[in-house]
Structure formats: C-alpha cells, structure tokens
Amino acid sequence: MAKQVTNAVLAEKIDNLTLMLSEHSRADLLFQEKITHLVEGNGSPGMKTRLVLLEESEASRKMYRKLVVGAAGTAVAALIVALFGKVM
Predict the structure, then answer these.
(1) What is the sign, positive or negative, of the torsion defined by CA atoms of 35, 37, 41, 44?
(2) Maximum pairwise Cα distance, the chain
(3) C-beta neighbour count of 1 within 10 angstroms
(4) How far is it, in rounded angstroms, from Cα 41 to Cα 24?
(5) pLDDT tens per residue, range 53-87
(6) What is the phi-psi region of residue 38: left when phi exceeds 0, alpha when psi lies from -120 to 50, beta otherwise?
(7) Over the range 15-32, which residues count as b (16 or more CB within 10 Å of their CB) and which as e?
C-alpha cells in the first residue's frame, strides 16, 4: 500500500528544500564576489587592469617594430647610395 503523505511531512520537505536553496544562493553569491574580485582587482591589479597593460605593451611593440624596419630600410638605402654613388 502507498505511504500516506501528511502536511507535516510536506512542510518538513519544503523546509529542507528552502534551506538547501538558501545555502546554494549563499554559495553563488560568494562565487560571484570571487569572480568580481579577480576581474576588478579590489585594491590590487585585477585581470581588467592586466589586460589593459598587455594591450598597451603590444601597441608599443608594434610601434617599435615599425621604427626598426624603417631604420633598417634607411640604413640599407644609405649603404646602396654610399656603394654605388648618387641617386639619379
């Protein structure tokens, strides 16, 4: 025969589910705070700050590469002019 479910049993189960839900909500909030702390930094450089620094350093590397290539091209042109005489 099937077991009878009483109001007391249902109330106990609802209380257990409510408790589990509140524990999970608390864990989710803690996890969200940790993620926010990692991204924002909260007093120390976070991932966002580090990403900005990486982007800035990459932009400066590109500029230096262009300067080096330009200087090398100028040096090669000066060497050719020095070896073969004046440009027409």
Answers:
(1) negative
(2) 111
(3) 3
(4) 25
(5) 899 999 999 999 999 999 999 999 999 888 887 65
(6) alpha
(7) eeeeeeeeeeeeeeeeee
